[in-house]
Amino acid sequence: MTLSIETTTADHTDPASKDEAKGPSRGSAVTVKLAGEVDYATAPQIRTAITEALEAGGVSVVHVDVADVTVLDSTGIGTIVVAYRIARDMGVSLAVVNPNRFITRLFTVVGAEELLAEPTDTFTAKDAATAN
């Protein structure tokens, strides 16, 4: 049950979020990089890291980088989904980035595919055919 969390912040301009008078909205992009096991035992650490990022203010985007995640259970997914909803209510975009095929499939199966930064074709006709 080990988890490493690294948080980085960078300036961010979101051209999609544009005010006619002011131009693209600006704010910080925070990346919460997870490495290791994302499960029942480590979910509170993830919750704390994302909460601190959101409460810092001036954040327009939160990326949850899962490239180095080795285990992801339902509690871990649930923690990220709740963070997504809270961020959305605060007007902050939250997306899961760098998922491997297994993590992509998990998010798709539980109906949380909208959290993935990149659209996925995890369940194409080809995949369905090979699954049988």
Automatic annotation (TrEMBL):
Residues 1-28 are annotated as: Disordered. Coiled coil: none annotated. CDD domains: STAS_anti-anti-sigma_factors. Residues 9-23 have a biased composition (Basic and acidic residues). SUPFAM superfamilies: SpoIIaa-like (SSF52091). InterPro entries: Anti-sigma_ant (IPR003658), STAS_dom (IPR002645), STAS_dom_sf (IPR036513). Residues 30-132 form the STAS domain. Belongs to the anti-sigma-factor antagonist family. This is Anti-sigma factor antagonist. It comes from Salininema proteolyticum.
